[in-house]
Each structure stands twice: as structure tokens, then as C-alpha cells.
Amino acid sequence: MYSITYIMTTSNSKNFEIDVAEYIEEAFERCGLEVRTGYDLVTAKRSLNLLFADWANRGLNQWTIEQTSITVASGISAYPAGTLSLLVAASASFSVGETITGGTSGATASVISKTSATSISTTVPTGTFSASETITGGTSGATTTVSAAQDFSDVQSTIDILSTVVTRDGTDFEIDRLSRSGFLNIPSKSQTGRPNQFFLDRQITPVLKIWPVPDNNTDIVKFNRLTRLDDADTFTDTVDVPFRFYPCLAAGLAYYLSMKKNPQMMGMLKSVYEEEMIRAMEEDRDRASFRISPPAYNYGV
């Protein structure tokens, strides 16, 4: 008798990814259906992007957290909750903190910093600057031409701010969060000093309001912000989620499609989706050491 020994091998690869088209195919199959028309793909991609919006409302997704830094400007208390630049022909002659005005659009904003020879970091403008128009500095009197319309996408991708500090002379100081009413009730909003409180005004273009009003141009406000997932634009895109969320995404898309394509399966598919979401969110939580030390006097020490 001879024994046969089988040597088992693994792939030694960890690069499994699913693109948008494959997620759609998987979701249709879970609904007991097949993708048959081009419109099936279109409506499924729309559902996928709506699913991403649902995830933004459900809470914290660790992989979408970004740290952003903004160097403050003396006298300015409201900042974009992300990166907002205005491309111009020349920025050197403008002053930090001054108000710039569009000659054609009438839009106004304050200069936070001059990030390069052809770029100005600004507050969220009142109005919209137009490409090729002339802007004028309210204090310096400097003029230049706008090279391109401002791109608000980075600021508008901010869902929420989780934590904030201000750095002064190399030391980070925590900034406490206020509610809308709490910020409104500050009696002296023009008081200057090192910022120690903030309020996130969650408009379509979110604004970070800090208090006291900065008294220099050197403090740096750093904040961890929760941002939205990248859109599913084409069917060959890979999706902006980590491996551990793949089952949850497939289950969620199947549930969303069942509303339109196979309502009889909605109940079952929703249950699967919620179970997958709970497992994924529990794994995606933040972790930190936690220790409890009982008081020594209880032991007669």
C-alpha cells in the first residue's frame, strides 16, 4: 500500500479587489436577478452612490479620517473646514488678513495665507469669484487676475470634525467643541487670544469657527475630519472602502436594488445588510488602552 501526500499551497496574494461592475453583478445575483440592460448598470451605480451617503450618516468610518492643518490669520475667526485656494496671476502684493473683492462678480473673501506665488488661501467667499476677473485687496490696494474658479470640493467633502488642537510655539493645545447655541451665546466674539473653542457650521461648504479670535499669523489649527467616500463614477472604478467592508457593501447594494427590482426580498436583504454593517462597524472602532486603578486607601495602604 502506498499513501499519497497532498501538499496544499495558498495563493500568497492579498490583493483581491472588486470594481463597481462586479459589485453590481453580485448585488443583482443576491436579488435573484441578472444584469440585462445598460439601464440596469446606471440605476445600480446611482444606488451605490446613495449607499455611500447612508454610510456617511451612520457614523465613523476610520479610513475616511484626514488630518488638516490651517495656519491662522490675525483677526479672522471663520475658516474653511478643509483646503480652499484661489489661483491668481500673482499673490505677493496682498496682505494676510485683508479682504479681497472681485471686480466683476463682487465676491469677497479674506486672505488667510499666501500658499505660493500664484495661490491664495482664503475664507469661504461671499459670492463666487469668476475666472479672469480682477481682484483687489482692501488694505494693500494690490490687484491681480483670477486664473481659475475656486474648487470647493475638498471643503465640501468634510462630513464632521472629530477633534481639534491649536499649535503655538511647538505645543499642541486642545480646543473644545461648542454647539451652535453655545457659540452664539459667547458674549464677546471679538475677543482675541489663543483659540480654545470651536464650532463647525455644517453648511454645504462647512465653516470652522474658532474663539477667541486669533491674535497672530503663526498659530496652526489642526483637526481630524471625517470625509465622504469617493464617488463611483465609472464601472471600472475600484471602491473607496477597505477589504473588511466588502461584504457590507455588497449586502447594502443588494438591499438598495431590491427596493426597485425585487421588493419581495427586501426584508431578508435588509437583515443581512444590517448584520454585516454591525460587524464591520464594531471592527472599525477606535482602540485605546484603558486602565482602572483602585484608590490605595481602600486597602489600608
Q: Could you explain the architecture of this structure?
A:
The protein is globular. It has 301 residues and is an alpha+beta fold. The chain is built from six helices and 14 strands. The strands form three sheets. The protein has a six-stranded antiparallel beta sheet with strand order 3-6-5-4-7-8, with no helix packed on it. It has a four-stranded antiparallel beta sheet with strand order 1-14-9-10. It has three domains: 97 residues, no CATH class; 85 residues; 67 residues, no CATH class. The mean pLDDT is 92. It starts with 19 loop residues before the first helix and ends in an 18-residue tail after the last helix.
Give the gist of this structure.
The chain contains 6 helices and 14 strands. It has 301 residues and is of the alpha+beta class.
Q: Ends: how far apart?
A: 73 Å
Low-confidence stretches: none
Given the structure, what is the number of helices? Answer: 6
Residue fraction in strands: 15-25%
Structural class: alpha+beta
E-strand count: 14
| Number of individual domains | 3
Q: Regarding quaternary structure, how should these chains be classified? A: single chain
Q: What would you report as the Rg, rounded to the nearest angstrom? A: 26 Å
- Gross morphology is globular
Helix content: 10-25%
In round numbers, the mean pLDDT is 92
Helix and strand arrangement:
Blueprint: H1 20-30, H2 38-58, E1 65-71, E2 78-80, E3 85-87, E4 99-102, E5 108-116, E6 119-122, E7 134-137, E8 143-145, H3 153-156, E9 158-168, E10 171-174, E11 176-177, H4 180-184, E12 197-201, E13 207-211, E14 220-227, H5 246-261, H6 266-283
Parallel strand pairs: 11-12
Antiparallel strand pairs: 1-14, 2-13, 3-6, 4-5, 4-7, 5-6, 7-8, 9-10, 9-14, 12-13
Helix pairs in contact: 1-5, 2-5, 5-6
